[in-house]
Amino acid sequence: MLTVFWDQRGxxxxxxxxxxTTITGTYCTKLLLKLRKxxxxxxxxxxxxxxxxxRDNTPVHNSHVAQTEAWSYGYEILPHPPYSPDxxxxxxxxxxxxxxxxxxxLFPDDEMQISExxxxxxxxxxxxxxxxxxxxxxxxxxFDSCW
Length: 147
Fold this sequence. Notes:
By secondary structure, the chain is α+β, with helices and mostly antiparallel strands. It contains four helices and four strands. The strands form two sheets. A two-stranded antiparallel ribbon has the order 1-2. This is Tc1-like transposase DDE domain-containing protein. InterPro entries: RNaseH_sf, Transposase-MT_Hybrid, Transposase_1.
């Protein structure tokens, strides 16, 4: 399973969950620590500004341990109303385009699959950056109207 943290400039961090591993609150806390490190290296100065997380309403994201960890880093967790597709940018902007890059490809092993997913994600983000003025404006309007 792929977890992607991204913003209007592209991917900040990707994490691949090993087969047979369960996503837990503890796993989410480790991801948030990795994210913090990635922000320090990929987005210099961003930690001094507001870092906002928009996640879906899965129980693991809403677990006490995961929320406490996010708050301890100073991250603002944006509320995600149920049944709100306009607030799921990854579902509408990132993953469908990635699927186009991966369609019809067969992977002999996990390493090759991960490598191709990374390439597809990079290509998708480049495409989104070309469209980013419209996308970011639309996302900003959605966020501003909700918060």
